[in-house]
């Protein structure tokens, strides 16, 4: 099983240290976190959690095992087709799932060529 946590928020993170720590711990689990920011808030903290440009670290210095967060600001897709938003929201999910199974040394179930 693999889980996806979808967070739709119009606010900012008030407990960034605890949130970073929780994401780092969750990076070991079979899950991804998708955050959609709605409204005009400053979502810089959400961008920080989306570890595309660097490895996320908890306040203890522990590194995330893998990138599990995808942040998408809804305002960037306000006038775009729904499919464009869906593509952005799900863009990193296949890679995140594969990274988890590789990290766990779990081969694909169907290993026979098609």
From TrEMBL:
InterPro entries: Copine, Copine_C, vWFA_dom_sf. GO terms for molecular function: calcium-dependent phospholipid binding. Residues 1-108 form the Copine C-terminal domain. Coiled coil: none annotated. One of its GO terms (biological process) is cellular response to calcium ion. Pfam families: Copine (PF07002). One of its GO terms (cellular component) is plasma membrane. PANTHER family: COPINE, COPINE-2. This is CPNE2 protein. It comes from Crypturellus undulatus. The gene is Cpne2_0.
